[in-house]
Amino acid sequence: MRLVTPDIGTIFWMLLMFIIVLVILKKFAWKPILNALRNREQSIEESLRSADKAKKEMEKLQADNEKIMAEARKVRDKMLKETKKSSENILGEAKNKAREESKKIIQSARVQIENEKDAAIADIRNQVAALSVEIAEKILQEKLKDDKAQQELMEKLLKDVKMN
Question: What does pTM read for this prediction?
Answer without folding.
Answer: 0.40
